[in-house]
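Batch job 17 of 40 flagged for manual review because the log was empty.
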Amino acid sequence: MVILLTGATGYIGQRLLPNLIQKGHRVICCVRDKDRFNPVDSIRPYIEIIEVDFLEPTSLSRIPKEIDAAYYLIHSMSNSDEYDKLEERAALNFKERLRTTDVQQVIYLSGIVNGKNLSKHLRSRKNVEDILSKGSFHLTTLRAGIIMGSGSASFEIIRDLVEKLPVMVAPKWLNTKCQPIGIRDILKFLDDVLLNEKVYDKNFDIGGPDVLTYKEMLLKFAKVRKLKRWIYTVPVMTPRLSSYWLYFVTSTSYRLAVSLVNSMRVEVVCRNEEINRILNIFPEKYTRTIERAFAKIDKDQIASSWKDSQISGVKQINISDFIDVPKYGCFKDIKTRKVIVKEKVIAKIWAIGGENGWYYANILWRLRGYLDKLFGGVGLRRGRTHATALEAGDALDFWRVLYANKEEGRLLLFAEMKVPGEAWLEFKIRNNQLIQTASFRPHGLLGRFYWYAVLPFHGIVFNGMIDELTR
């Protein structure tokens, strides 16, 4: 079968792809930016990669006519304040393009929307479902609530709260009920509904066996981690204050925090378990999904992370637009050191950031991260997905990886922190020398003032960092 996979670079898409290949399907991967997509070599013979922007109807012409089924995993929740309009446009364009193909079924992963007072986020999901239901294909909608798994947004946010705050004074929405489900079970459902006529033209709620309040989820998470935590809810936190609370304590972006808070005020519990009986899938308990997630984390086997998607940042960029660092109109801080053992230096560079820190003056890096959060940036809390591996598109603290080639000895990062301009940080080994270059293209007078204001700190931080890298 030929399967169209949208959102192939996303958290779910990256995990679903190898499952589809393993079942013998040929998969056409829709990505907005090919440079952000790094499938392993073993699956490349079985996939075709096409660049598609679902907001641009002309680009959808690249979707071939000969497809049997499609997964619709497109979401724009943090791309804009008007994400609901963007999601509507994308769904309309997708539906119209598929009219000219042989597709039999579209599978849409949505959110549980069985309440009357829906958040903007859930209303948008339902609107997309309504649009797709009018297509020339059979639609199967799987509606999930909180998705738990290594690297998922919900998992990482709960982990941040539990591991960093022994005592929480939290908003009253922590008493809202939900029905979490593990990523492993999500993938089972997505696999088993494929071209299954029993689920054509229907929607189903999918969730785990536990109905919990968010407070109970936090406390059970703490118990698995063997941590003692105290949580007190107060009625005085407005949605805006709640969003700031979530934003400053966790690694989420502010825009995503707003969407999450608005959704968390709405109860999301499955209507029934009809889909479980049809497919003979019975999801795991909440605590078991947490144990599985940490087993993956401990082995450094996180297959995908929400932090590597566009929604974790404040800048929506195509890597190809920034991979060539400008030669003119930039301020540059270039430092060089002799390299004794190339392999050791490269290993240090590829392990930079996250828990390892930046090798020198980490207190200044953390201070910069705090300031970035204050001004609406991503801060340092995103960390990194893997301890020693980096690929183009990965998030790395408040940077985005643009290029990573160990054999060439070159790593190029682009700043996603709040700065009045554009900033790059490059590590390159040439002729037994490490060349470390910080480049900044200022926006106006404020950008120039910023560069000169931080220049003294650059002298401390960047000299110390290159010394440690080559030590």
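Reviewer: the log was empty due to a logging misconfiguration, but the result itself is present. The first strand starts at residue 2 and ends at 5. Unflagging and moving on to job 18.
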